[in-house]
Inorganic phosphate transporter (Aneurinibacillus migulanus), 332 residues
Amino acid sequence: MDTTLILIIAIVFLALAFDFINGFHDTANAIATSVSTRALSPRVAIVMAATMNFIGAITFTGVAKTITNGIVDPFAIENGSIVVLAALISAIAWNLITWWYGIPSSSSHALIGSIAGAAIAAAGFNSLNYTGFIKILESLIVSPFIALALGFVMMSLFAMVFKNFNLTRTNRGFRTFQIFTAALQSYSHGTNDAQKAMGIITLALIAGGFQTSTDIPTWVRVSAALAMGIGTSVGGWKIIKTVGGKIMKLQPVNGAAADLSSSLIIFGATLIHLPVSTTHVVSSSIMGVGAAKRVKGVKWGVARRIVITWVITLPISALLAGVIYKILTLFM
């Protein structure tokens, strides 16, 4: 069998594995608040999240195309198949490390940093598509701050509107409303996160000479959506514990405000074809909601640990991918 074909098969397998891992790694983002407030049982929440993730994943392709040609030129990248393979190995490794320690790091940062690092190792800094790469970085950096602000505003608005309502009845109503917001959160997650694997598979197909356009093949869309859905069904309880309870003590109204805020931002990014970190957006929304309720109620020590992980993920994954690329070229 041709070496290039073997590499493409390996890349497709690893890309789907990345989507699977992304599914259970980021399941917490969609359902952590609804589980922690007991709006949904864990089993029901995971089934719903898996279903909505799948539906979201097959609905759009704009983010996938951005991943395909926004970081590097897929038609000109040197040793493109090996670059993509190194990037996937690096991103998966970082995802598993952070999952093991229960740290809600960004799969998006890991993947994008890994693609950039492997491409730089292959052909230097000129291999990057700086216009697209900077736009992607801006969306990754700015979106958590917007989420923080929107979470604060949303919670403040809820507090103002419902301040004279019966607390028990209001919480019961928001607990029901959280079923909708959790479903919306899962759907928006699928529209953005699953497309990253679609984009990297298409990038590999172009680099390997198996495709001549940036259109996302139907089989790639369906397989990535299935991998994300199955991964979601596995669940990520360590991260659910961190996101759902360690940042702040959540009540149904807090969970609904956080879910609604983050869903709007993620879906908005999908509509303009930009990848964002669902982990960053959800965690920042919760921090914003907590700050609106009571600044001291947010456990800023946990938040600081999450932020540090955000900051180090891109450079570490880039460096790791560069090293993996150099090792792979010794054998290929």
